[in-house]
User: Fold this.
Amino acid sequence: MIKVEIDGKACEAPQGSTILDIAKANGIDIPTLCYDPRLSPYGACRLCLVEVEGARALLPACYAKADDGMVIQTTNEKLERIRKTLVELLVSDHPMECQGCSKSGRCELQRLADKYGVTESTFTGEVHEYDLHRENPFVMRDYNKCIMCGRCIRICREVQGIGVYDFINRGFKAVPGTPYDKPMQETPCEFCGQCISTCPTGAIKARPYEDRGRVAALDMLRNACAYFKMPEEDMMKALGLEGWVTRTTCAYCGCGCQLDIHVIDNKIVEITSPLMVGSGQGNLCVKGRFGYDFVSSSERLTKPLIRKKGKFEEAEWDEALDLVAKKLSETKKKSCPDSIGVFSSARATNEDNYLVQKFARAVIGTNNVDHCARL
Amino acid sequence: MTNTMDDIETAKAILVIGSNTTECHPIIGLRIKKAVMNNECKLIVAEPKHIRLCYYADRWLQLKPGTDVALINGLMNVIIAEGLADEEFINNRCECDRYDELKELVKSYTPEKVEEITGVPAGDIREAARTFASAENAAIIYAMGITQHTTGTDNVVTLANLAMMTGNIGKPGTGVNPLRGQNNVQGACDVGALPNVLTGYKPVTDAETREKFEKAWGVKLPEEVGLTATEMMEAAAEGKIKAMYIVGENPMLSDANIRHAEKALKNLDFLVVQDIFLTETAELADVVLPAASFAEKEGTFSATDRRVQRVRKAFEPPGEARPDNEIVADIAKRMGYEMENVEPAAVMDEIASLTPQYGGYSHARLDSLPDGESLHWPCTDAEHPGTPILHTTVFTRGKGWFAPVEWQAPAEQPDEEYPLTLTTGRVLWQYHTGTMTRKSEGINEIDPNGKVWISPDDAAKYGVENGKKAVVTTRRGDIDIEAKVTERVPNGVIFIPFHYTEAAANVLTNDVVDPVSKVPEFKVSAARVKAK
Ligand code: SF4
Ligand code: SF4
Assistant:
């Protein structure tokens, strides 16, 4: 363990921690843009520069390892002036049309612009105009909003191990693009959406929610966040709607990734995964992130069905349950309990599975109960 | 898994066998890649197809389908011959005379002989064995490519031999790690949805166990082991099973030899299916009960590394659909049995009270865990911190038991009439029988239909063209399916993912099962293919 002092506060941390790690652990906020705990430090955005007593230059907190006895200042007039200038520079080439942007309320640039009171930049110069990339069903790219933090490039390479993106073009025209600007479905992209989850601005967005699943209430939320300069979670709290996000477990494979399901009007409007929580650490796969339209599919069963004269007819619950109970009781009595078979489900919860096997054993009286573990 | 998902990143060598991890367990795939990219871990991939993990592998052992036991015995042969076994671990933790027997058996599995059986060059076998055995810690990861064979149990046992022999069990970055195919296979097994055991894997044949549950449930319990899913199908076909209650399963797409399953289900006097969609199986039912989806109910799932996690209700089920627990309890009531606990939290308490491994779980405890913390079972009481790594000091039975096994060929061999080996599996985009993923617009834009993968040489030989329809036939039946000509499958092997009802791979698969585990041999059938 090492001991350091940050903004006058004595902190302890394991050897090898960065200044940013220690600050975070101690509730001290250092602004960042190119940082994501899932990635190795990059030190490109310079927002996290801090002053270390005795050091010759300012140090990027995300990169610099803390030494025992270090005395660190994360904020002072000089640092804040630098940060404000950096934000102004970024904003100068960023269309601040936050109303209508689906990242509004959780955009890291928006938060910093609000914090430093930057609305329009004092810098004027050439601005970019790129077409929207929406050639695939999942990942939508709007390079006008890109701030060149490289997080998408890095997450695809470092976490997903794929490397779909790299900086293409040179100088002013550089953007993180696909090889030869190919549509993403012609690259090895797995549509995991990790790049969406890390992009700090509205440059990379989830298309299903951006395009097709557009919900008026969600647009209102985004606009309100932009108007009142409020982060999403604060806004939802203010509206008394903090329950709109439900933490749960993915229902696909056995990795058990943790999901945050965002719900409006009984519909899933977006799925994200909490950072550094559970097996996925904030990463998901295409199924977990995008595969949940089925929940609100119009093909869902909504009423019991009973086959009458070869055809299904809708029935009331009482009628259906009575019939099931009668038939199973009859079979049990006429033949024997072992002439009934029960299939439980590897997709159902532990509690449901427990009740189903209890039902087979205690109610029917058979051990003929299994699920598709083998299939 | 004996170890956890987080733990994989710390391994210095990983053997992935019979698992297309990046597609079927993507997040575990990330962990493996991370081990390779950040931890200098050497990855050995044993797999007939070229899978994405091969790009990250130190060595790819392209074995013929169904030759796993021979390959692993070959690795052990080299490890013994070169003195790389962990004698200390074997002496302290295992039954030594069993080890002598294993030594005796693998003697004949020289790399040269194994090359003949598996097609993997002897030199690669030697190198892979050295890499695995000399790593500081080495993990084995496997999935259905190991279990879905008539020799599935042998395959698993052989992998355990390898892990024990190299001392790779009970410490971080090691272990024998099966990846369960579905979100809650682990949990369904843990809570007794199996014909031979009650919760916590307690045998139904054990009088003491039964007594405990009889007391808790207030009824007399059946004493004989029940039928497995595959056996129930067989019994239904023979008319021995007359009624079935199927909760959330779709055997009409997931069973081997679907046509047979269809006959079996149609032969029933009464079939009730409880599901969220009118699945292929529900179509055959007499009564269909609409159930709530995972987003519409409370409960828990147990991930493949024994991590029990909460499932929470986000909104109400559509229409009159109801959660499974309530439906089951209602039927029970109508049959004269009042279930004491129906609410999920109370049911978990009941499970905890009857299941030592789950003794420390409750919804309240799981809800109050700090972000980022998990509880892996065994977790025996409310203070127990969980058990991320199993077998750290002793094995469940005490001393490690080596079980030497000879390699046996799969049930069906290619012959003149059916010259190809068909193997099945999943692709990244889809999940199991497609009931859920195939209703996702975006996913189906990327992956609209099933394809049979065939090598360029075989395609030319059998007149099949890329993107055109082909007919694949086995002794069970035939399907029409688009051909994908790719070098990712070797000559003589074709691959079909089983998600697609209109080109259902399981019309073709062989329903012959492993004698112990009763898992059908999905991974090997003899087949032929021609252009349509
Ligand atoms: S979706 Fe995933 S694989 Fe595709 S570019 Fe983004 S991070 Fe890379
Ligand atoms: S998000 Fe993907 S990897 Fe994670 S549990 Fe769901 S299906 Fe599995």
Summary: Residues 317-334 of chain A form the longest helix (18 residues). The longest strand of chain A covers residues 258-264. The pocket of iron/sulfur cluster (ligand 2) is lined by residues A 250, 252-253, 255-257, 280, 284-285, 287-288; B 26-27 (CB under 6 Å).
